[in-house]
Amino acid sequence: MKKTVPLNKTTRWLFLFTGLAIAGLLLGSSGPTRAAGLPPGMHSSSMDACHDTIHSIQVNKFQSSKKNKIRLYPDARQQALFFSANGDDKKVYQLYLFDMDGRLINQASIRNRETTVLTNMSEGNYLFEVFTDDERIENGHLVVR
Predict the structure, then answer these.
(1) pLDDT band for position 79 (50/70/90)?
(2) How much is the pTM?
(3) Strand order in the sheet with 135-144
(4) In whole angstroms, what separates CA 89 from the centre of its chain?
(5) Span 97-111, average pLDDT
């Protein structure tokens, strides 16, 4: 079951400001693509529309946590995005995915050593933020082509 966490006004502005500040730098950029198979402990989540013409998913991180290992990576067929975390056993990790206009497109929550899958992704550029305990621990850009 998908858990929705309301965003307060300050957090929404932070996401919007972060997205707008780096959006101009990110459009058209490409970075390394990581592919992997299906990990154990997987959960499922969906995005809005499905396109069968997706050829690649690229993940570019701008901030990485030193205490927590957060992974965002496509499946071997480049059709879905995996989100996994490895850190403190008591923490919940939340992924927020925004379009380039700053609108929240999807969110997913996992616990330590869990993995969830985001499927049915539409082509486009996205910004992502990963939080735990109301602290942003990772952020970056995602390109779906």
Answers:
(1) confident
(2) 0.63
(3) 57-63, 135-144, 124-132, 92-99, 104-111
(4) 20
(5) 96
Correct CATH for 9-144 of 2.60.40.10, 3.30.360.10, 2.60.40.3080, 1.10.260.40 = 2.60.40.3080
Q: Which two tokens stand for residue 116?
A: 């969830």
Domain segments of the chain as ranges: 9-144
Average pLDDT, the chain: 74
pLDDT band at 10 (very low <50, low <70, confident <90, very high): very low
> What is the DSSP secondary-structure string of the chain?
-PPP-PPPHHHHHHHHHHHHHHHHHHTT-------B-PPSSEEEEE-S---TT---EEEEEEE--SSSEEEEEEBTTSS-EEEEEES-TT-EEEEEEEETTS-EEEEEEEETT-EEEEESPPSEEEEEEEEETTEEEEEEEEEE-
